[in-house]
C-alpha cells in the first residue's frame, strides 16, 4: 500500500513538473523586455534669447548598437542655449546642480546626471551665468492624449509583425529596441529595431494615434 501511494505521489510530482515546464515554454514573449533606450519625457522653455530642454531617458550602459540589450540606467540631460558664450554656466534642476559643458559644434551647454523620470507637468530650471541666476519654467511636451513609449513600441509591432517574427527564435528576440519621444510642434516617437548585424529598421510614429508615418533602413 505504501509503495503504491509513493508511486502515485511521484507520478503526480512528475505531472506537475511537466505542466510547469510547458507553461514556461508557452509563455508569451514580451518584446518590451528588449528596450535598450527609452526617452520618455521632454521639458521645454524658450524665449527670444534663452532655450532650455530637459530630456528624461533610460539607456543601456555602455551604449552600443549591437542588437544586445545591456544594463539600463536612468539619465536626465539638460541642453541650454544662451545669447552669448560664458566661461561658467551652472544649472539646478530639482535636487541636482552642476556646471555645464560647452558644446562648440552645437553651440549649446550640456549636462547629464542620474535621475529617474520627472513625473510633473513642469520643471523649474535655474541657470547661473554672467554673475546672475535666473529660473525658467520648462513645460512637459507630453500632454494628455500622448501615448507612452511602451504603447508606441506596441504600435510598431502591430504594424510590422513580420520583422519581429523574423528576429524571434526559440522564444528569444535577437535584437534590441530604441524608443525616443520627439517633439516638433507635436509629439512623435522614433522606434528603432536593431538586429545583431547592427542593421536598424527605424519607424516614425504619431504620438497620439500610433500611426507609422515613415520607415527607414539604417546601418548602425
Plain-language structure description:
The protein has 220 residues and is α+β, with helices and mostly antiparallel strands. It is 19% helix and 47% strand. It has 3 helices and 15 strands. The protein has helices at 2-25, 149-159, 161-166, and strands at 35-46, 51-60, 72-81, 90-93, 96-99, 101-103, 108-113, 122-129, 132-140, 168-169, 172-173, 175-183, 187-195, 199-206, 212-219. Strands 1, 2, 3, 4, 5, 6, 7, 8, 9, 12, 13, 14 and 15 form a 13-stranded mixed beta sheet that branches. Strands 10-11 form a two-stranded antiparallel sheet. A hairpin with a 3-residue loop joins strand 13 and strand 14. The longest helix has 24 residues, at 2-25. The radius of gyration is 24 Å and the shape is elongated. The N and C termini lie far apart (68 Å). Residues 1-12 and 14-26 have low confidence and may be disordered.
Amino acid at each position: 500500500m505504501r509503495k503504491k501511494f509513493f508511486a502515485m505521489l511521484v507520478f503526480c510530482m512528475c505531472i506537475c513538473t511537466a505542466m510547469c515546464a510547458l507553461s514556461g515554454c508557452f509563455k508569451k514573449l514580451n518584446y518590451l523586455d528588449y528596450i535598450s533606450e527609452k526617452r520618455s519625457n521632454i521639458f521645454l522653455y524658450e524665449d527670444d534669447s534663452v532655450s532650455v530642454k530637459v530630456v528624461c531617458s533610460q539607456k543601456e550602459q555602455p551604449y552600443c548598437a549591437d542588437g544586445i540589450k545591456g544594463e539600463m540606467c536612468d539619465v536626465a540631460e539638460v541642453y541650454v542655449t544662451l545669447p552669448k558664450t560664458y566661461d561658467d554656466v551652472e544649472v539646478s534642476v530639482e535636487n541636482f546642480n552642476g556646471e555645464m559643458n560647452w558644446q562648440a559644434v552645437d553651440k549649446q551647454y550640456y549636462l547629464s546626471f542620474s535621475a529617474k523620470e520627472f513625473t510633473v507637468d513642469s520643471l523649474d530650471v535655474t541657470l547661473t551665468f554672467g554673475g546672475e541666476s535666473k529660473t525658467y519654467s520648462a513645460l512637459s511636451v507630453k500632454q494628455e492624449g500622448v501615448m507612452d513609449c511602451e504603447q508606441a513600441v506596441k504600435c510598431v509591432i502591430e504594424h510590422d509583425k513580420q520583422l519581429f517574427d523574423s528576429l524571434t527564435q526559440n522564444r528569444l528576440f535577437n535584437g534590441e529596441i530604441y524608443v525616443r519621444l520627439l517633439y516638433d510642434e507635436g509629439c512623435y516617437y522614433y522606434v528603432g529595431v536593431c538586429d545583431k548585424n547592427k542593421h536598424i529598421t527605424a519607424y516614425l510614429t504619431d504620438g497620439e494615434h500610433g500611426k507609422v508615418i515613415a520607415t527607414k533602413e539604417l546601418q548602425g
